[in-house]
Amino acid sequence: MKKILMGIAALTLVGCGGDDTGIVPLSGSYPDAGPAFSNPGQAVGVVLETDLGEIHVDVYTERAPKSAADFLYYVDKGLYDGQGFYRVVTSENDKQNHDLSIIQGGRLDLKDLTLVAEHESTQQTGFQNITGALALARGEIGSASAAFFFINLDDNKVLNHGGIRNPDGQGFAVFGRVTKGLAVAYHIQQQRTSSPEEAKQQPPEFALMGEQLLRQPVFIKRAYRK
Fold first, then answer.
1. E-assigned strand segments in the chain
2. Strand, helix or coil at 80?
3. In whole angstroms, how large is the CA radius of gyration of the chain?
4. Domain residues of the chain, as ranges?
5. Per residue in 36-57, pLDDT tens?
6. Global pTM?
7. CATH code of domain 2-225
8. Nearest CA among 107, 71, 101 for reference residue 217
């Protein structure tokens, strides 16, 4: 599963053709931030400057220390600069029929430079995969990396501890939330994705997510602490 997640970036950059590559205007109105967590503890503010605007996030270093530290490592080392968001999942293109709503981003060059060996589950931290929450993508336990993170754009209960999205039922570790610029995340989700024809040209291991790949990534110009 980890290798599948890493390979998405390469396919996004070289495997999705077509002429409709311009920016799709934002449709609809959205809140500027997701709901706040109760007593989140110490937090570090981070700004993600993207092609479509800024996304401000709080990273919870006290209650999700391992996951937060990994994310901040990529921020502090400039490892998100020039990278971006490349995958969007909606209720329409979620082939697992979980009504998932997320955008996924991070490294576009196949490099997961770190791994978070300790899985900080939503049961452990108390942070749920709700609208605006940031979490680490993973396959098996111990394969999570801030090289691949996602932003929840709905209350995705299937991603919490006990949820069915991952067969082990351990869910996905939440370590932060969007505090400003949530509309930018929704705007990213509305960009053009691979057509069914393009998805068919991708390797079989990408069949589940082929149509979720953006034709063009939305780049992160710079990521930095406030």
1. 43-50, 53-60, 83-89, 102-106, 133-136, 148-152, 174-180, 213-225
2. coil
3. 16
4. 2-225
5. 999 999 999 999 999 999 999 9
6. 0.89
7. 2.40.100.10
8. 107
